[in-house]
Amino acid sequence: xxxxxxxxxxxxxxxxxxxxxxxxxxxxxxxxxxxxxxxxxxxxxxxxxxxxxxxxxxxxxxxxxxxxxxxxxxxxxxxxxxxxxxxxxxxxxxxxxxxxxxxxxxxxxxxxxxxxxxxxxxxxxxxxxxxxxxxxxxxxxxxxxxxxxxxxxxxxxxxxxxxxxxxxxxxxxxxxxxxxxxxxxxxxxxxxxxxxxxxxxxxxxxxxxxxxxxxxxxxxxxxxxxxxxxxxxxxxxxxxxxxxxxxxxxxxxxxxxxxxxxxxxxxxxxxxxxxxxxxxxxxxxxxxxxxxxxxxxxxxxxxxxxxxxxxxxxxxxxxxxxxxxxxxxxxx
Length: 332
Description:
The structure is a single chain. The chain is of the alpha+beta class. It is built from eight helices and 15 strands.
């Protein structure tokens, strides 16, 4: 997929605002927000302000900085190879929102999604797979930059190599990063199987780092299974071989752990409470001044004289049985 040319450049100036970094160091200055980085002035670029210290803050002699986050378009994506080209202001958060549901993930991710592609290149960020896959810059194939003399150039590992190597991890000192091209990684599922192992001392820790350095973040034995129904409900199951003898099950519904309320049971209970409350109010069965709570319904309790006759109770029970069978067929 490829996008068409974007709109004309628009600059938003915030005069005398406090510009802050992640270390809470701040300066008074002006922050420009263009949506076309090529037409921005030749000043310091900054993304989401997650760099340490004052590296993304403008100098006091010229307190102006360009915020790149409005230049956040994906320019091209090859679904066969995963190669992505995007503007430098695209954040990992927005990138994941778009491509993670489609089975693609960045090859290296730091401890925060609130970082732009330009910032990831400038700081050459690393992640938990650093010992296997290196830093983010190891995966970058092309950069589009504007250098000090105003030229817009392309560079990469095999093109303008010296400029490329100086830019990756160069904290913006070699020029302004306009676009970034790199391959996304195909993943079978957004879930990660994590194993923790306690070691006795630093020597054992170093030994395991060396012997298990090629171990993948998601073990090869993990296989996801999917089962979809015509009504749109989808079940996702991941299984992995383990030497443990105890049963280990983690259950999620709509991304929420079952123990934290992510279960269809709670949805069913909520539906029962709403239906019963509507039934009682429609038939004027609630004594004046009484508020019927969920606890009263789910635990079949009465409150302050709430009474149902035998015929009303039977009618209500038949209604709930029918609703329960329908909900059970959907939940299944």
